[in-house]
Amino acid sequence: MENTIGIIAGSLRKDSFSKKIANAILKMQPAGFTFEVIALDDLPVYNQDFDDHNSVPDSYTEFRKKIKEMEGIIFITPEHNRSIPAVLKNAIDIGSRPAGKSVWNDKPAAVFSNSPGNLSAFGANHHLRQCLVFLNMPTMQQPEVYIPNASKLFNDQGDFNESSEFIQNAVTSYVKWFNRLKKE
Predict the structure, then answer these.
(1) d(C-alpha 122, C-alpha 177), whole Å
(2) Is-contact 26 35, C-beta < 8 A?
(3) Reduced 3-state DSSP string for 52-89
(4) What is this structure's pTM?
(5) Which helix (H) or strand (E) holds 112?
(6) Is 140 exposed, middle or buried (0-12, 13-18, 19+ CB in 10 A)?
(7) Is the distance from CB of 85 to CB of 11 less than 8 angstroms?
(8) 135, 92 in Cβ contact below 8 A?
(9) Residue 163 reports pLDDT greater than 70
């Protein structure tokens, strides 16, 4: 049986490091798993009136349906002002509503944070983890995945260069952890 894992890059920028990491991780899916990047580009800012007045945008419906189909989620996030980007928080809010119908519930998660500098988006990583606790998403604790100097990860074709062993190990750890959770 295939396990489908969604990969969410918390950035809208076409050439974002988070999107590049997400696309490169697609090639790391092991046997028995399907990895799928889930885009956030077309999600309007969350407004509860949409749900309250039955005027939910099609993009919300499609996003919620897609997340519901996933068995786990790998979040890849940059850091904006020492927290998660607005687009990622918006996606989290859309998936958590309407109240009592969260599509995130009980999906095993992992958080990979990245930055072009040395701080590795530490603040975003931990803020996202706080959100995931509330959403009841068990989150892989080890290894913690902080990716510094993201601009140096890729070759000219957009593939990981030789420095990607750490990310491969993190993906492998997530898959092992996911399998342990699913057996429980």
Answers:
(1) 22
(2) yes
(3) HCCCCCHHHHHHHHHHHHCCEEEEEECCECCECCHHHH
(4) 0.95
(5) strand 109-114
(6) buried
(7) yes
(8) yes
(9) no
| Higher pLDDT pick, 90 / 155 | 90
Residue 80 pairs with which residues in a beta bridge?
A: 83
d(CA 52, CA 38): 26
| Residues making up the chain, counted from first to last | 184
Which residues does 86 contact at the CB level (< 8 Å), separation at least 6? 80
Determine contact, residues 7/88, Cβ cutoff 8 Å.
Answer: no
- Copy the structure tokens of residue 115: 């930055």
Q: What is the phi-psi region of residue 25: left when phi exceeds 0, alpha when psi lies from -120 to 50, beta otherwise?
A: alpha
Mean pLDDT of 20-43: 96
CA–CA separation, 55 and 176 (whole Å): 41
Angle at 93 between CA 90 and CA 97, to 5 degrees: 145
For residue 135, give the amino acid letter: L
The whole-angstrom distance between residue 184's C-alpha and the CA centroid of its chain comes to 23
- Strand 72-77 to strand 3-9: parallel, antiparallel, or no bridges (unpaired)? parallel
Burial class (CB in 10 A: 0-12, 13-18, 19+), 42: exposed
